[in-house]
Specification:
The protein has one domain: Ferritin, core subunit, four-helix bundle (Ferritin, Up-down Bundle), CATH 1.20.1260.10. 76% of the residues lie in helices and 0% in strands. The protein contains 11 helices and no strands. The chain starts with a helix and ends in a 5-residue tail after the last helix.
Length: 259
């Protein structure tokens, strides 16, 4: 982000938050890695010939990524309405754009892999734990519970996706890898917003910690089951799998949630 990116860290805390939650900051962030790309990857990146089993595994993973990104898209849209201040509304509006773009590039990748009926394919391969998580997230947003909703979406869901996408990108074909690496950059920003907002709220109103801890206990099994199932779908040998949910667990531990 050039000189501006270096200057932002010298700002006072309140000014820093206003800056990094702005459309201006968002534009400079995404422009750096989207410039010259087409549907999330460089135009000259060649398609790799996949075996039928590898193609099927990739399609299953991408279908579930679409479910996760749809949950994030609709969740962020709802959070804009209940956001406690203008800066949060502005940031979440940039997140809505991010999630919509993620969904678009993933759907396009499925078409490149020969999927013609996208909705039918996504529904038939949907991970049940992920669908349950999506439903629970929407219930929190509909209940206008800001702390619980931002915890479920920008900490739990984003951290799970960040971890899965990192693991997948390490072994993906070049085209899929470029798409995932771009999405990962956005997930870092989304997680940072959630952790920063909740960190400040927990410091000011520590009594909400118990309620969030209960939500974590409810959602933990769904996230870890989704993570395990996705790695299995990708054909990652159990002996080579990283510790389940390490990025997710690290994120919640930074907020003081430990078992």
């Amino acid at each position: 982000m050039g000189e501006r990116g270096g200057e932002v860290h010298s700002l006072e805390p309140d000014a820093f938050l206003k800056e990094v939650h702005s459309f201006e900051f968002w534009f400079q962030s995404v422009e750096g890695y989207l410039a010259g790309s087409v549907y999330g990857h460089r135009p000259d990146t060649a398609e790799t010939e996949l075996s039928e089993s590898d193609r099927e595994r990739l399609i299953t993973a991408l279908c579930n990524y679409c479910i996760g990104e749809t949950a994030a898209l609709e969740g962020a849209s709802g959070l804009v309405v209940i956001a406690p201040n203008r800066e949060s509304q502005i940031f979440l509006s940039t997140q809505v754009v991010d999630e919509g773009r993620h969904l678009e590039v993933l759907l396009h990748r499925l078409r490149e892999l020969g999927v013609t009926d996208l909705e039918k394919e996504i529904a038939s391969r949907a991970n049940r734990s992920l669908l349950t998580f999506k439903r629970r997230l929407f219930e929190l947003v509909a209940g206008k519970d800001w702390e619980a909703s931002i915890f479920a979406q920008n900490v739990i869901l984003e951290a799970m996706e960040f971890s899965v996408f990192q693991t997948h990108a390490e072994r993906a074909d070049p085209l899929t890898r470029e798409i995932l690496e771009g999405i990962i950059k956005d997930e870092r920003r989304h997680m940072g917003f959630g952790e920063n907002d909740l960190g400040r709220r927990l410091a000011a109103t520590p009594h909400i910690r118990a309620r969030l801890a209960e939500i974590k206990r409810q959602l933990d099994p769904l996230i870890l089951e989704t993570f395990e199932d996705t790695l299995s779908d990708l054909g990652v040998p159990r002996s080579e799998r990283p510790e389940l949910g390490r990025s997710y667990l690290a994120a919640v531990e930074r907020l003081g949630f430990t078992e």
